[in-house]
Amino acid sequence: xxxxEFAALAVLVDGSASQVELARQLAIDARNAGATVxxxxxxGWLSSAxxxxxxxxxxxxxxxxxxxxxxxxxxxxxxxRSDYFGALDDPERAELERxxxxxxxxxxxxx
Length: 111
Fold this sequence. Notes:
By secondary structure, the protein is mainly α. It contains 5 helices and 3 strands; from the N terminus they run H-E-H-H-E-E-H-H.
């Protein structure tokens, strides 16, 4: 799985989006998102359908297989994170998480 595919799954796990919206959230050109969308559709992890209120807009949604793939990836990542961050005690991990969330919130506020 590529970083772009992982990032697309991360966006779509929270709900549907158009290819333009997905590209905006990934900070890439919508045309470049097309290859990622195509690969995810070929794997059966993504479905697309015309928007019911705007037929020109195509809505992308994770399929049940896509959700399972995401869940499996998250389980793997949790194990890897435990190994990687094992050098930190619980208060240190909590502080790191707080700081990373602060950075993320500041980044999101710029959009």
